[in-house]
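re the bet — no i am not wrong, look at it urself. input seq straight from the record:
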Amino acid sequence: MSVPNSNSASVYDESKIKTLSSLEHIRLRPGMYIGRLGNGSHPDDGIYILLKEVVDNAVDEFIMGVGKRVNVDIGADGVVKVRDFGRGIPLGKLVECVSVINTGAKYNTEVFQFSVGLNGVGTKAVNALSDRFEVTSFRDGKFARATFAHGELVGEEQGDTNEKNGTLVSFHPDPNAFEGYYYMREFVRKRFWRYAYLNAGLKIYYEGECFHSVNGLLDLLDKEIADTQLYAPIHAKDATLEFAFSHTEGYGESYFSFVNGTYTNEGGTHLSAFREGILKGINDFSGKKFSGEDVREGVVGAIAVKVKDPIFESQTKNKLGNTEVRGDIVNKVKDFVCDFFYKNTELAEIIIDKIQQSAKIRKELQHVRKEAKAKAKKVALKIPQLKDCKYHPSAEKPSGPDRQNMLFLTEGQSASGSIVSSRDPMTQAVFSLKGKPMNVYGQPMTLLYKNDEMYNMMRALDIEDSVDGLRYDKVIMATDADVDGLHIRNLLLTYFLHFFEALVKRGHVYILETPIFRVRTKEETIYCYSEKERQAAEKKLGSKGKKAVEITRFKGLGEISPKEFKQFIGPDMRLQQVNIDTLSEVPRLLSFYMGKNTPERKDYIMDHLVVV
């Protein structure tokens, strides 16, 4: 029998026990504190969370009644500066407040009653994950400044100042943590508008633009559904709750939910209570027992709550978990809606007619759905076009930043064959379209059950009853880069935006970018995604000697071998997320590009034609 070597890694003794400082732990396990790292191409990537944590503190000052202005600057070098005009951090506690976890005034409800950042982690995470971090506090003619590098204190300074009270935070995200990062202006603007809508009167200045709202959530809905709402939004507000909603002609329901000034994109107890309150209020007034599905069909709403001790699902604050707030919100919404209808009976009749029409359509849909399901069972238990993956997110095993599954939507057997052969079967599924999908713009939802391809796609995604049932984290359109491929992409986008708008709004839909050219010599190969990249690659390889440079243009995905394709859907996969700035844009865009106005589109094409 052999004796283990005392130097072996298998030895477990006192020398193997390590104690990390709080900031060291953040740097070692950043996902626990800010979720995904990313590079800025997704609105939930870490660099936006760092920005959010700093701006949250500035907004907290506004919530407490001090500091109506916040200045934000994001330099070309990636340095972020946030200046608020609140009370400033107490000078003697400046270093601790930005470097020691669980340190802050937000545990003291006399100082911060309805704060976003309550666990004393946010700014410390920004510090730990920045290669340069500096905070300056101005209070009553005095200032204190602390400078950090990679979370380590490298300098302190104190003195007199003429600056107004407040705090200035400057940080540069560590490029080793956020490799190749960049800030996308539209993601930043969207965040700042949400701050403005949630905090009427607050002014955030960024790149010469002032983000400011007078009417709060009413301004939000006005921007989102001004052209599609059936009536002016119903709106209510008290000290801890504000909500607004209206019906549209769209399918499903869509909401914006907030807690203590931060956007909770996954909702939570406050949102479920809001939805229940709308249902109960309408049923109490009408004396009917309408279903929630019929009452809320086409509803677009927003709710903002203030909670003293919010419990979030994670540090990234995506979902509220406080169950004790539910009953109060349900009753407040129900009572207001019921009372509003008694005072506005004509509008109440219009809404009830809309609900009854939705119920009628739903019953017709149930009949068609039943026939479609019976037909599908006769043909096959499995979906014929789907090559599924083994892993799917669930409540017991939810997806994380490093483990997400995806479904590729591709056209034709050759293209799908390349992806199927090169995919990771654990997390990557493929749905193969038989040809160009039909243009569903303006079509009723019953069409989905009469068209096998549309129906099977819906079944594969498992979004028939609700987008909440989605089986994949990412739905990726993988089409050729030619005109036909772009047309298929537009038809798929129309399908999602027309029937399942929430899928796009929640950030699940992506476009796969695949190379157009392959430039290579015998020693080196470069894949290029644009003509500009091809020219650069040809110049680079050509400068290395007299060896011939071979250039191949891929006419379609099917021409890329499975061995080559593997790298294009691997860890370095290039994805472009589909985003919509406002919901009100969707009907107008779909009507113009996918409607029956062919002469207008022809004129548009001729006016914007580029001669190559």
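see?? The longest helix spans residues 345-379. told u. also Residues 107-112 have pLDDT under 50 and may be disordered. so pay up
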